[in-house]
């Protein structure tokens, strides 16, 4: 496990031996006499996954895996900050958490949240190995992570096999709640289909019909499904694909791909790359003169992209999960922005906002279920109740465990119009989620069993 960290907010690097000792302590709570168990756990539920061993003591454990090295590291660290703030708020009974999960006082069902962090490096095998250890050694009652959709899909499979809930972190692939969906996985954030359905009408209105598009696509499930969704949505207006340049994750040089884009005769460049890959490919597109010949579009916005590309997002349209200026419309967004900036010193990007609200929703489901028993928690998600979020009221679909939520369309501000150093985007439109989503079975979702 790379860079494993266990604690509440400690940042303490812990050895495998210490992890085993911690796990033994957590598991030991399961051996308490029945009369000493808290009322919430004197239930007639069979053992499943880490239940009841993982929730029999005074605390419960969460396994977090995010990329802290590699091409998605910047976004992974931002995602982690959102998780850590949510854990802090749940443990303290913060007023923002109470607005989302009214039954939360301090901790979940009165139990303190503890957590471990592992560096996935955006590699599925690294993430699975780390989370398997958190499940086996720390009796994790929930795991989370992603940033790379390949990681999210792998953790979906682990969660279903181990019968431990996976609250998905960042994942833009349609497959995560499509053909690779599982009963033990839920996802809050937007994804390829909803991004494409939200931004395509704006692009058609802005640039017109019958345009030629060149694509830069990362070669894994996120890239392929976002590109396919964009092609499908734009085809109705006569947009065609002149070239689709597919590159590996972490490619150091995009010159050969950009040469093909430059010679394709395209009107627009649709860049589906993410993380540092998006930064590098956009910077090189500018250096090679591609952006002088065609307009840039980013269908699935990357946290910190405007900052890291040095102004190259000015005038560029993108779809995103969250942008901090929506605080003027959503009071909970304002509360979150203030708490996050106070703790971390900058305005939250959508990775942190997504991870925070995902944990807040999970807390609500446990409190509403009144138990940590996984099937009951899952069935609470499946009630499709309308619940608060940072972007207004939302709900989770019972058929695929996808959150039905709005997508935000932004346009990069020109430098002269920025009101502060983090005022990178104008919000063009907030598109309601219901009309953006495919039918629940369109991408082949079959959730599987509870037990």
UniProtKB/TrEMBL annotation:
Any Pfam family matching the protein: Peripla_BP_6
Annotated GO biological process: amino acid transport
Sequence ranges assigned to domain Leucine-binding protein in this UniProt record: 60-413
Organism of origin: Bradyrhizobium canariense
Annotated SUPFAM superfamilies: Periplasmic binding protein-like I
InterPro entries xref list: BCAA_transport (IPR051010), Leu-bd (IPR028081), Peripla_BP_I (IPR028082), TAT_signal (IPR006311)
Entry similarity comment: Belongs to the leucine-binding protein family.
Stated name of the protein: Amino acid/amide ABC transporter substrate-binding protein, HAAT family
Highest taxon above the source species: Bacteria
């Amino acid at each position: 496990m790379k860079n494993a960290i266990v604690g509440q907010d400690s940042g303490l690097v812990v050895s495998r031996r210490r992890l085993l000792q911690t796990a033994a302590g957590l598991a030991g709570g399961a051996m308490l006499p029945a009369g000493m168990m808290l009322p919430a756990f004197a239930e007639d539920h069979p053992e499943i996954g880490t239940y009841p061993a993982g929730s029999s003591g005074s605390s419960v454990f969460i396994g977090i895996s995010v990329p802290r090295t590699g091409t998605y590291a910047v976004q992974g660290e931002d995602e982690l900050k959102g998780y850590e703030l949510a854990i802090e708020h749940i443990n303290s009974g913060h007023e923002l958490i109470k607005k989302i999960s009214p039954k939360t006082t301090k901790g979940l069902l009165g139990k303190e949240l503890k957590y471990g962090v592992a560096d996935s490096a955006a590699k599925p095998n690294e993430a699975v190995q780390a989370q398997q250890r958190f499940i086996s050694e720390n009796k994790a009652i929930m795991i989370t992570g992603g940033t790379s959709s390949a990681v999210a899909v792998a953790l979906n499979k682990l969660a279903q096999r181990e019968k431990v809930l996976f609250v998905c972190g960042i994942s833009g692939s349609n497959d995560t709640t499509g053909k690779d969906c599982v009963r033990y996985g839920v996802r809050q954030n937007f994804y390829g289909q909803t991004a494409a359905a939200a931004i395509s009408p704006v692009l058609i209105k802005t640039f017109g019909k019958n345009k030629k598009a060149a694509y830069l696509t990362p070669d894994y499930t996120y890239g392929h499904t976002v590109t396919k969704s964009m092609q499908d949505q734009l085809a109705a207006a006569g947009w065609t694909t002149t070239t689709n340049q597919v590159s590996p994750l972490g490619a150091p040089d995009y010159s050969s791909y950009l040469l093909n884009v430059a010679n394709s005769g395209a009107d627009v460049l649709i860049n589906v790359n993410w993380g540092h890959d998006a930064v590098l490919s956009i910077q090189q597109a500018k250096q090679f003169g591609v952006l002088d010949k065609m307009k840039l579009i980013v269908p699935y916005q990357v946290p910190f992209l405007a900052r890291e590309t040095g102004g190259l997002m000015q005038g560029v349209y993108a779809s995103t999960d969250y942008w901090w200026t929506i605080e003027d419309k959503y009071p909970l967004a304002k509360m979150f922005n203030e708490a996050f900036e106070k703790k971390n010193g900058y305005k939250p990007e959508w990775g942190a906002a997504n991870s925070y609200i995902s944990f807040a929703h999970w807390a609500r489901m446990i409190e509403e279920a009144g138990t940590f028993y996984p099937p009951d928690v899952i069935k609470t998600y499946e009630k499709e109740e309308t619940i608060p979020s940072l972007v207004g009221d939302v709900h989770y679909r019972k058929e695929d465990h996808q959150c039905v939520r709005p997508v935000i369309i932004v346009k990069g501000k020109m430098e002269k119009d920025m009101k502060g150093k983090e005022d990178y985007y104008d919000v063009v439109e907030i598109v309601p989620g219901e009309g953006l989503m495919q039918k629940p079975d369109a991408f082949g979702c079959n959730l599987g069993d509870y037990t």
